[in-house]
Amino acid sequence: MQLGARAPEVCPQRAAGHGVGRAVIELDRVGKRYGTGDGAVHALRDIDLRIGAGEFVSIMGPSGSGKSTLLNLLSALDRPTSGRVVLDGRDIGTLGDDEITLFRRNRIGLVFQFFNLLPTMTAVENVLLPRMLGGRATPADRADAVALLQQVGLGHRLGHRPGALSGGEMQRVAIARAFATAPAIILADEPTGNLDSATGAEVLRLLRAQAETRGATVVMVTHDARAAAVGSRLIEIRDGRIAHDAAAQVAVDAYAVAALASG
Description:
Layout: E1 23-34, E2 41-52, E3 56-60, H1 67-74, E4 82-87, E5 90-91, H2 97-107, E6 108-111, H3 123-133, H4 139-151, H5 167-179, E7 185-189, H6 197-214, E8 217-221, H7 225-228, E9 233-238, E10 241-247, H8 248-262
Parallel strand pairs: 3-8, 3-9, 6-7, 7-8
Antiparallel strand pairs: 1-2, 1-4, 4-5, 9-10
């Protein structure tokens, strides 16, 4: 990464869809509050956001800034206190719990820092899990799961359980599982946080390929500026608000320079 003598100017952009495809993620005046009265904590305040099909968006910010809360809303694991969240054309606030569960299973792929694989299942079975939960795992689905594992370089580990896999291999199984339903939205929470640099780079390549070749919308929360630069766009969250929203490399350079200046 090249750092200049001064940070490039990065202006906050509200409601900024960066012109890539239709809007797949839309947040209108979204707020999230925990508690009431004087003890209330405002995790997110007045968030307006558009993310298009085929975008790979990195989200950065200090601990407690609201990144995890935002990711929970984007994954339909939580609902906003105010405002509207629309994912792949569905207003999450209008859906019942069962509808949200089905929507998340079929339209959102989740990649976690700690993999969240089922230890008693093989790699193929873990990738098949979204189909199995839907009661529709067929021989064709199994063939697709095998193909996905081959795509992520694990064709030789199909029958291995998580305990027999390395951390990088487990993360690649988790990524294959996230891709299993060809979701419109892929959300990744610190996907390289527990990986060595070479394996982390491969994970980022796989995520970026979903945006570039399939038009999936990829959103990744990370503390790593090098990982963030792989995306096409970077959003910085501070104090529950969008502080900056710009093309990834420009924003990463500014973020790094600001961090050096404050250190």
